[in-house]
Amino acid sequence: MKNGALECSVCHSKLVSPNSRTYSKAYDRHKNRVSSKQRALKVLLVVGDCVLVGLQPILVYMSKVDGKFKFSPLGVNFLTEAAKVLFAIVMLLFQARHQKVGEKPLLSISTFVQAARNNVLLAVPALLYAINNYLKFIMQLYFNPATVKMLSNLKVLVIAVLLKIVMRRRFSVIQWEALALLLIGISVNQLRSLPEGTTAMGLPVAVGAYIYTLIFVTVPSMASVFNEYALKSQYDTSIYLQNLFLYGYGAIFNFLAILGTAMVKGPGSFNILEGHSKATMLLIFNNAAQGILSSFFFKYADTILKKYSSTVATIFTGIASAALFGHTLTINFMLGISIVFISMHQFFSPLAKVKDEQQNEMTELRDVPERLKSKDSFLDLAAAANEETTHRVGHDERQHLLPS
Description:
Blueprint: E1 5-7, E2 14-16, H1 20-63, E3 64-65, E4 68-69, H2 73-97, H3 109-118, H4 123-139, H5 145-152, H6 155-166, H7 173-189, E5 199-200, E6 203-204, H8 205-233, H9 239-265, H10 278-300, H11 303-325, H12 331-347, H13 350-392, H14 395-401
Antiparallel strand pairs: 1-2, 3-4, 5-6
Membrane topology: Multi-pass membrane protein
GO cellular component, one term: Golgi membrane
Family: Belongs to the nucleotide-sugar transporter family. CMP-Sialate:CMP antiporter (TC 2.A.7.12) subfamily.
């Protein structure tokens, strides 16, 4: 290769070779198209998640009568899982009807059995989610909806630690500082937020609330990380088939909990349809939609993004609870929300990822010469072979090949 062109060793003709700048521009255009689609998907996921997560504590609060739940929380969770199973089946049938020729059929028994074996790990997050969904109702007995939403943001730090341990994910110093700032924002909001003068389980309410908070933070964090790991480890499996297994396990665990409650409290508690209202029906629909959206977050986006998007819903929850139920938006809440938003901006800032991006760009630039070398070698061989064939059909050289 001379001056960016390939030269034939026989006739010395030159062919233009793609240089690294041309290759880089073409790759950048492709990368930008892919990145724009990913950004659009993430924006839609975040917007949908903000609406659904923001409404969830409001609907739970609206479902209470005289400070208590007239319905069974386990029954609501079971109906939610059943609704998600139904959605997964419908979407799986729709996807199977639009499969391309030659693709492995989604509805075959062999495909289903093999997928069930490969995705058995989804039973772990399904169990953890069943526990967490019950705790969501218990937390409403101690805190108002805005405070519950702020407490759930503590999951971000726990998730970051679990992602580092389980999935070996790396975070920059700036991102760890953003997570610390998030904790500060939540702590500011929680000043003077605990109710006083009542008891729970024979313990002062503060102690009981803190115990529930500890479980409420750690259990769903583990569920989210294991869910992302399980979904992405079988990335080629249809997400609707994976959701069918995940929600199926969840329905089984919730049904077993209902049976256990019926054995302890009597057959009267087995009626899962008792005490429902329009608010609980909306709650079931909201929880089902939120669970379905979360699966797309975990498989195609990121668990940290999912939890940070939930923090955006905090301001919606706070304003809605103040407007609907007269809850006061304290200065602590406003300061806490501001710090949380600053933390979120800092975590996803380009400065927080500059080191990783530079490393990826350097890796890509190092790979370009290797790819060009292999491509140049192939072009050299192709040009030489083509030139040799051309020479063989020439008049003068054919004279030497014919017998005299």
